[in-house]
Amino acid sequence: MTDAATMLDIAVDEARQGLAEGGIPIGAALFGPDGTVLGRGHNRRVQDDDPSTHAETAAFRNAGRRRHYRDTTMVTTLSPCWYCSGLVRQFAIGHVIIGESTTFHGGHDWLTAHGVQITILDDQRCIALMRDFIATRPDLWFEDIGE
Amino acid sequence: MTDAATMLDIAVDEARQGLAEGGIPIGAALFGPDGTVLGRGHNRRVQDDDPSTHAETAAFRNAGRRRHYRDTTMVTTLSPCWYCSGLVRQFAIGHVIIGESTTFHGGHDWLTAHGVQITILDDQRCIALMRDFIATRPDLWFEDIGE
C-alpha cells in the first residue's frame, strides 16, 4: 500500500516536467491496487499542440488497455475538469486523489455523488504551481479549460 | 450551412474506416460554424492500443488548438459516453449531432440539461454498425465503455 502523499509526489514530478517543457503544469498517475504505477503523464497541449491530452488522459493512455479500473486510483495535481471527470466516471476508476481544488474546482463533487472515492490533499506545492502559472500565462490556462 | 445528415455521413465514413482497420466502428467530426470540417477521426483502441482515443476525442484532437468551441458542432455516430460528454461540456461545444442512441445511451441528456443543443438522427446505418459489432465482439465493446 502506498500512501496518498507518496502517490501525489509522482503527479507533482509530472507537473514540474510539463512546466520545464514550457507546458501547463498539471500531472497525474494511475495506480494499481498494490500501489504500482500503471501509467503517468502530464498535460501536453503546448508540447504536442494537442488540446485533448490533459494530465489524467495522458496517465490513462500511458497505462494501456485494461479490462476494468474499479480497483485503480487516479492521482492528479488539480481537481479534474469535466472531461477528466467524465473519464473517471465512464471507466469507473474507484478512487481519485487530488492535489488541490483551490485554484480550480472541477467535477469532483459529481464524482462523489456517483460513488467515486475522492481525497483532496490541499497540497501547497500544487497550489503554488497553478497560482504562478495562471498569473504568468492566463491565456494558456483559459484555453486549456475552454473559457 | 451543411445539413445534419450530410455532416453525419463524414462520421459514418470514419466509423467504417475504423471497422475496416479491425477497430471499434465509431466515428466523429468537429465542424466550424460555416460547415467546414475542423477535425475528424474514429475510435483507436485496437489500432493504437489506446484506450483514451474515443471517436470524439480523436476528432477534437485532430481539430488542433482553438480559443473556443461554442460555435462548433460535434457529429458522432453514437451517443457520447461520459468521457466524451465531459469533453463537450468542458469545452462548451455548442451542438452535438448523434447518429443513434439506441444501442448505447450515454450522457446526452446531461448535456441537454447544461445547455448543449442535441440532435439525434436515429440513423439506421449507425444502428446496424454497432448492433453487428456488439454481437460479434462484445469483449471489445464492453472494454471500450469500461463495463
Automatic annotation (TrEMBL), chains A, B:
Entry's localization field: Cytoplasm
GO molecular function annotation: diaminohydroxyphosphoribosylaminopyrimidine deaminase activity; metal ion binding
Keyword Metal-binding: yes
UniProt pathway: Pyrimidine metabolism
Record's keyword annotation contains Hydrolase: yes
Cofactor: Zn(2+)
CMP/dCMP-type deaminase domain boundaries: 2-118
Assembly description: Homodimer.
Protein name: tRNA-specific adenosine deaminase
Species of the source: Actinophytocola xinjiangensis
